[in-house]
Amino acid sequence: MEQAEFNRGLLAFIGTSPTPFHAVANAAALLREAGFREIDNGCSEALNSGQRYFTTHNGSSIIAWVMGKAAPAQSGIRMVGAHTDSPCLMIKPQPELTTAGYFQLGIEVYGGALLNPWFDRDLSIAGRVVYRDTGSGQLHQTLIDFKKPVAAIPSLAIHLDRDANTARTVNPQINLPPLLFPLAEGRYKTFRDLLVGEQLSGVGATGVEVVDYELSLYDTQPPALVGLHDDFIASARLDNLLSCYTGIQALLNADDSVTSLLVCSDHEEVGSGSASGARGPLLQSVLHSMIPEQAQRVAAIARSLMISADNAHGVHPNYIDKHDLNHGPILNRGPVIKVNSSQRYATNSITSALFRRWCAEENVPVQSFVTRADMGCGSTIGPITATEIGVPTLDVGVPTFAMHSIRELAGSEDGFGLFKVLRAFYRHRDALTITVSK
Q1: Is residue 312 predicted with pLDDT exceeding 90?
Q2: Largest CA distance in the chain
């Protein structure tokens, strides 16, 4: 695979994955096409060496793995972790607002979103809907995506707020409800009626009733290569669908000599505390299925390595004072090893050295990120997974601008560089450790 092909696939994956549900559905399709077999995570069937499997949870998290021919208790498991969710605006259960002649939707903010960039964008709606067939009474779930722009959040004109460029703040309850249509249009009285009329008409034989949903707004501007020489990728949800896609492509290129695994979990942006998040039992239960015998499983985990892949902050040229310039990643200069002595990242000198070795073997440059000593540091699924599973872990990522904005920016070379390193990691047959000198 060449860089141009990788980037085309990345843009297509992100562009058709406006929610974690869509991302997992698209990931599952790629895995099925490559010969991975979907299994129920609760099943007790034997997993055969040399075979490829995947399982999903809640439709928003996915784990895929290759059962290697070498015993995991001897060779360890090569694990990569990422997350499927991104900060966004979620639609409330009873969202209808009618103000000054307009039909609007009440929203709540999911994750640590930058709010100002949501103004003046062409927005659509996507997610999961649970509906009842009014004929049979049966409940069903389906994914929906309006695809076209159906909503907008207009800015207040500067004539009405002369301090807009110096002191404007955003109250999400008051300032962010999007406009859908003028009330004079009068076609829909409730949002659920709108969902039936615009997305679910014809689904049921006699009719449908929306019971509940998990829906969010998203920007319809597609991902794109930008820059004089296509130097950058501009897109929503680069954090962290870029890592999900990179991990999938690396796993598709894994051989069956050793056991390799990719986990993409939901709810990282709100702390991972859910059944489908990194704090939940999903990865642990898959490891139990892979290696039922406890002693063998403990031995395998001790010899394994988890690479937590999540975007890193690139040095912003307009905000130099926000960075430690000795540890400031530059876009298109390679993936980043993320370090924090307070364990906000799970990297240590051994896991970092192993990653640097694979970067050198693949001729991929590598950088380091440490936040300023006078600033707080975010976190990832890395420390959570290390704590829950006990697996040696490091945190890496692709340097990014405008993280948590509605449109982020990454280097067009860095995702492909990370792909090459993860591919080498999945194919690496030596022990995932460093010999102790005496």
Answers
A1: yes
A2: 82
3-86+236-427 and 88-219 share one fold: no
| pLDDT, position 236 | 98
Quick check: pTM over 0.90?
yes
Residue 39 has pLDDT above 70, yes or no: yes
Pairing of strands 179-182, 139-145: unpaired
Torsion angles phi and psi, residue 317, rounded to 5: -65, -20
CATH number of 88-219: 2.30.250.10
Cα dihedral sign, 405-411-413-419: negative
Q: What six digits make up the tokens of 347?
A: 């990297």
Q: What is the C-alpha separation between 141 and 257, in angstroms, rounded?
A: 39
* Sign of the C-alpha dihedral computed for residues 387, 357, 434 and 350 taken in this order: negative
Q: Do residues 212 and 140 lie in contact, with contact meaning Cβ atoms separated by under 8 Å?
A: no
Q: What are the residue boundaries of the structural domains of the chain, listed by start? A: 3-86+236-427, 88-219
Distance CA 218, CA 127 (A): 10
pLDDT(387) > 90: yes
Q: Does domain 3-86+236-427 have CATH number 3.40.630.10?
A: yes
Please name the amino acid found at residue 52. Answer: R
- Phi then psi dihedrals of residue 201, to 5 deg: -65, 130
pLDDT at 274: 96
Q: pLDDT-derived band of residue 42, with 50, 70 and 90 as boundaries?
A: low
Question: Residue 43 pairs with which residues in a beta bridge?
Answer: none
- Average pLDDT, rounded, for the chain: 95
Q: Give residue 184's pLDDT band: very low, low, confident or very high (50, 70, 90).
A: confident
Confidence of residue 43 (pLDDT cuts 50, 70, 90): low
